[in-house]
Amino acid sequence: TGNAAAGRMGRMSTPTPVAGGQCATVTGLVLAGGQARRMGGSDKGLVPLAGRPMVEHVIEALRPQVASILLSANRNHERYARYGYPVIADDLGDYQGPLAGVAAALRQCTSGFLVTVPCDAPLLPPDLVVRLLTAREAGDVDAAVVHDGRRLQPVFLLLHSRVAPSLEHYLAGGGRRVDAWLSQLRTAVADFSDRAAAFVNVNEPDERQAVEAQLLSSGGAG
User: Fold this and answer.
1) b/e for 142-176, b at 16 or more Cβ within 10 A?
2) Interval 31-73: pLDDT, tens
């Protein structure tokens, strides 16, 4: 019902940075600034999934893992702002891809690290940030990226704040691909082959139905 939805919104609208230890130095960024062409151009983060906007599932999974959260969005700012976190638009126009959102977030990131996740990954693993930090710290590299056992998942990233100038330079030169930029950095790979299903993206209606069924069966409808 409308009242139930409002209640959920109210519970989620108070930012509660609960992570400690390593994760106290990490800011989380939820990327919700794309055009979602394969979902009919709708604002993907606000697409209903198991009775809630998809972005709510992502925020709920990420929030215990980080010290603070930023939301990258290029439309419906008022809707996203209801969650109580800063909403950042890309500085580049015409939907230039996730790196534009990452660059804007890095300019506002006051912690040592930024972890990025897409708004269409509602099955986010609860140990994502810790495992990315562990992979990065093994060599004190610039970034750590998820590998699901089959391929890299380049928008699931942990970035040291020192990469900001590199990203600005890459974007200024017309670069847009995440993997191409990562190839310019010292990057560690975090093996998530044991959690491959956690990185499924809801890009199409049939994927939405499958993930929704999984959330409902696990009690993730909220």
Assistant:
1) bbbbbbbeeebbbbbbbbbeebbeebeebbeeebe
2) 997 655 444 567 889 988 888 899 999 999 999 999 999 999 9
Chain Cα centroid distance, residue 33: 11
Residue 217: both structure tokens together:
């069966």
SS3 per-residue string spanning 150-214? CCEEEEEEEEEHHHHHHHHHHHHCCCCCHHHHHCCCCEEEEECHHHHHHHCCCCCHHHHHHHHHH
143-147, strands of its sheet edge to edge: 87-88, 68-72, 26-31, 113-118, 152-160, 143-147, 187-191
- Alpha carbon distances (Å) from 188 to 13, 114, 162, 183: 34, 15, 15, 11
pTM of the predicted protein model: 0.83
